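Predict structure. Chain length: 443.
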Amino acid sequence: MISVQKLLEYSIAWNALESICYQLILFSHQYATYQVLTGAQYGIIGTCFSLIYLAITISNVGLDYSIGPFFSFAASSRENAWRIIGKPLIVHLCSIGTIGIIASQCAPYIWPTTASMPLIILALIFLSESLKKTVRTLLHCAFKNSLTTLIELMTITSYICSVWSFYFLGYGLNIYTIFYPMMITSWVSLLVLSIVTYQWYCNLPAQGIIPPPHRRIIKHRIYSYGSQLSTLFFSTNFLVPLFAWKFGIEYAAVLKLISYFSYFIHTLMYKIFGVSLQACFSALKLEEVGIKRQFFASITNRLYQILYGIFIFFAINHQQILSLKSMPSHHSLALVGYLFLMGTLIENFLVSYEQLYQTEEKTAYLSILNGVNVAALAILVFSQVVIDPIAFLCTFIALRICTIIGIAAGAFHLWRIRFEWKPQAKPIFCFISASLFFFFLTT
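Prediction complete.
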């Protein structure tokens, strides 16, 4: 247990370094891009990015979620690793390759605007980023965090330097100068990550413990995929294209920029706490529930204190954060932005719970609860009632709060895990002081 605790702290430290540096670099790049491009141009490029990562999640079919619960079996031998991870990954590669080719050929007929886009480049980005997502999950479970951190930071730095080099050389920012460098750096990153993964595989023993039945793994993947798909409808990668379709491309441009801030926070919380808990619970797969409860309570309490601090910071400094250009005047876009950000930030309260349900193979409960929420959201979207963005987002937030309550109640019923919601005076005081300091510094 002591060794797992050390590995957990190691994982948190490296994941924090990668997430903070990576997301700060990316958010700065996106904000600068937003200032250079028009709202419509940024909206189109942002929608393309959202659709790529939306397709990545849909095409994953629960593969990434099946790595954590069965990683201890896979890591016991090369034979188990090939059976549990290798074969499904080959099938996944074939399926996403087919999807990428079909999508690049059919897109101009479905969305005529894409006829002028480099669709084969977008398809190659989809393919490489999809494979990278799975390989990174595997390496995080193997506690190879220092290597993934170095590779990811070098990748994002190379990409951004390439994009802005084109800009300062006089080529401007457009769909070609943004997506071509993305394709090249993504494939180079995938190659390096694959080499690290192969080295990990070669160091495994030839024989190991008896793996779980294949039927059990498939069952978990199906339930995980159902949960993954239902959660997808509440992600920024779905909401931004939805707003583009339902309320206009200008909304998509502004909300895409806000989504980068929300995604920045979510990635920090997921990488620092979610990924670390996934690796920790994978290592503790065969331990008694009391030990898992201790780790869960410790990490979740730290997660929630940071989330409270983020809400405090935003409440004090929201005007500085959301000082956006090109705002439509026919709606209170500021309020829409606030609600959109709040609705996406509350998802972070589920980060630790989702990892617990995944590794304990209880994703059927998540699928059912999220499925009910998706049905309610679908009724709201496709009903004949005319609804404005503010009312839509208020309903969206209410649905997510109900989801948090249901998942927390389920965890208490299954494992007697209490909701670690109580704020602590010392961290709250520190966050208020830091928020006020930033406020007076920027006003």
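Summary: The chain has a mean pLDDT of 82.
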